[in-house]
Fold these 4 entries.
Entry 1:
Amino acid sequence: MQQTLVPGSSGGGFLGLRKVRNRALALAHSPQNWLAWLFLIVFGYLILVPVGNMIWSTFHVQSGDSRRAGAAVGEFTMFYWERVFASGQLSARLLYEPLVNTLVVSLTYTVLAMVIGMGLAWLMVKTDMPFKKFTGFCAIVPYIIPSWTLALAWLTIFGNSRVGIGAAGFVESLIGRPTPNWLAYGPIPIICVLAVNYFAFAYLLGSAALATVDASLEESALVHGASNRRVIRKITLPIVLPAIGSAFILTFASGIGTFGVPAFLGLPVRYNVLATSLYQSAGVGRYGEAFVFTLVLVAISGSAILVNSWLLGSRKQFTTMEGKGSRQRQIALGRWRVPVGTAVAVLMAGFTFLPISFLVLQTFQYHLGQFSLDNFTLAYWIGERDGLRGILVSPRIRAAAVNTVVLGLSVGVSTAFIGILVGYSVSRNRGRPLSRIVEQVSFLPYVIPGIAFGAIFLSMFAQPRGPIPVLYGTIWIIFIACLVNRLPFASRMGISAMMQVGRSLEESAEVHGASFPRRIQRIMFPLTKRGFMGGFILAFVSTVKDINLVILLVTPRTMVLAALTFGYIELGRRQFADAIGVVIIIIVLGCTLIAQWITRTNPLQGFGGGNQ
């Protein structure tokens, strides 16, 4: 007798199993699906789990703190939060003074960077100023080179013999008396250096915003009798105001966790910001305290990014470019054209070449602060000074250089490749919740300042985690931290590149039996190689020059060049630190120019962020 299947019978279970099986097969044959799930699991473990682990650590007694906390290791405690936030004078010294210093420095350098960057953007986009190509190149270079090398250059120029290591700068040697202490160290130098480093960020964002303003709107107002000043105030400024606000917040968030500049220009006079307080706490083993500082930095940076997202949303209310072509209206500067262009070009060249020139000059000084020919030496390059060999003949520095280049290349290739795959999974799943989640999680590291990110990974991998052994003390922890930290920009480039690749080519190859790896190799990669190269160069350069992320993760065995400079500064060996800085600048600029030559594009335009 034929059996009739009814709902609730065993046949229903069979149909349910078939449905699950079919879904599993569909998932297996849809690489965009299993890639998205794979990325979600891996990113969750490498981003969300470390953050959660760090938060957990601030509420549990850490090793070495049981006596101070009055509880056994691992027990629940509010000790770290009370110590940082509610311990009177101790809290003022640990948190509130560095917090105020951080906000004052960050807000002030951001205002200066915005004034310089937005002013330059307006001159470059909206006027007929000459020398734009040279000026634009010079404007970007200070952002590409490490910010801490600009700090070293500042000390070479404005350092005095009464503060810090007691070395006179060029200005003191020139005028014959020490420069003011406030000009050598403290908030003023930090603000000036960070403003020079980050104004290019504001310039890039401002230029992009101004380029979207259709000239027909401005010309219409001029025809009806409005002056140039009124056109700027009533038309141009309202259109780009959300972008200006976004540039302000991103410039603020990008530098709030920077470590190198405040360390070189602030610590010698005990001027602390949150990043240096975090480093000092971690340096003496007070990790619970350091993790609280980390969360404060993340909260400030994350709040700034959320405000920026709101501003970007408000930008949709202006639609100035339709399907028709648009052009830029350039204001004629008249007789001021050449003087203004010359002045701006000289200023930008000064920001670029003056610091580098003085940095190079100091590497040839046997004694700091003596700017004379009889003080010239090659000891710091190919000789020896006080038992320390020159950087070109030192095995220690050679090992750090190898670590740096290998790390940069590995992170660059890996991050760029992952960025392309993230772009593939997100673009092919566009509109689905899974796609949005992967995209948001991949961007999360941007919210976390570099030194805070290093602290998070230190809390995660300083002890075994299931099958994963202790990674601290190996190059792997630095590699993984750098890879995850560079992920936001690589994934954005990958998504942008993949969104421009139609599905028809891939579907045609799939119909003819091409496997997914072969489709990636023969179709996707050739069509997105510029996005890959952009992701690679960003990740490589950021890794080579970064001191914020690696300063808590390096050991003598895994030392890299950027962290090595800080060690030489602590020893008072500025010439060695300067020489290493020059080498890093050569590597960074050389790699950027080679990438520009290979791709026939301008990768400098991609430097729109990062917690250097």
Note: The radius of gyration is 27 Å.
Entry 2:
Amino acid sequence: MSTLAIAHRGDPHGHRENTVPAVLAALEQGADLVEIDLALTRDGTVVLLHDRTLTRLWARDVPVADADFAELRRNRHGRYEIPGFEQVMRLLVAGDGGLMADLPVPAAAEPTAEIVARYDAFDRTVFAGHLDSLRRVRKRWPEARIALSWNEPELPAAELLAELKPEFFNPQWTLLTREVVERMHELALRVSTWTVDSPSNMARMLEMGVDAVITNRLRHFLSLREEGE
């Protein structure tokens, strides 16, 4: 099976990250999954946004958690706007793409999974992010696919793996070695990794046998993957 290509925040070089055009462009380019970051507004709407405020992308120093969805939607830049997760999910189920839903804020975990459940899309959604987010998802949805995001030199304890039952071990790429990949495979876990952008590091990940690569440079990765097949 080919190493999965996961587009980080959609196509962030061709479009504004975490927007509908960015997601659709990544799928059109051949991404197996599109990684998106999810946050929760004051009125409980799940939206696509990585940062806690609108400053970097939308030039407004407003925390997402202090704004209603209607207020966020007024922040338009040309054809780009902050989309609701449900809007993206509707587009997803109309096609054959998949998502990696990154949940850095635990409060967004259950509302996100409820939308996935409503669209019967657990088979094409992988949950990643904050450990408490993953715990909340696993507690209510045994069918959920989980990628255990990891940024520690020590491997996760057996108790944590038993609790979360992840499909993927998802560390930062600098933590990966061939031995770690082999150990995870021995535990029947797939290995995904983030965020790999240089061709040399992409090649290293492919040589190690990782199962999925999260990248901002999808076209480069797809080209390397094709060369190796």
Note: The two ends are 10 Å apart (CA to CA).
Entry 3:
Amino acid sequence: MENSNGLTASLLVAGHHAARLLESHLSATDLSAGEAVLLTALAPGPLTMSEVMSTLHIRASTATSMVSRLERAEYVYRSSNPEDRRSRLVHLTLSGRRQLEAVGPAFRAVDSLLVSRAGVGAVAGYKRVLEALAESE
């Protein structure tokens, strides 16, 4: 993918392509790519809204609307944080765990497709670029 603005612009465009590709594999669910990633992030346990924002690298308004949509669908619920009453925890519900099981095959299908098209070496190199990007924050 040639881009006159270099690597950064290409990474941003690639992220959008990855989201669209994942969403095509999520068509059996009612989830967006971002919502699927959020459910995956919640699998180990509840997160505060600040942790949702930092884990997904999204703004507060985006996190709030995403969690609200998942809450209306009964995939997550919010509770008071016993360690800090000013913050709220976001938890998966049983329905949310079922949705999480449904998104696993979509992630695996996209991963498999990308590895088959680009090769293991290219994917490993891309992961190193992403790690360097994460370290720059």
Note: Helices lie at 6-25, 33-42, 49-56, 60-72, 94-118, 120-135.
Entry 4:
Amino acid sequence: MTPRRAFTLVEIIVVLCLMGILIVPVGTVMEVGYRHFTTLSRQADAKTECQHASELIFGWLAQHPKYRIDTDNHGIDGGAGARLRWQDQKLRLEGKSLLDWPVRDFSVTPRPGGGITLNLEAEVLLDSRRPLMRMHEIYDYPRVGPW
């Protein structure tokens, strides 16, 4: 009968180190991939929401063709009590908030030859461990461009 041989402590430590060398990079790649996916997903959500808000504003402007830009360029008066206003990091159209994200800045500027340009800067929370991501979007009414 041959004697039973057990693993020595050195062999066990070597195997654990080799496993660690393989597992740590795989875990790091997975975490980086998850963070990148989260960032892109939140950014796409915010861009979609900003685009939707601009479409609501453009529809509202079409209903109020005699709009007037406020003197501070942070709002539009549509007449008869209808207003688009940026205040307290909220963009409100007739009292209803258009975006879930905090709006850091919003301005309405008239364009030469008619129309307006909306400048919108929003802060998007990616996750609790990272700083807010700032997004700056520019929209023209009526639309200008090759599309």
Note: The mean pLDDT is 88.
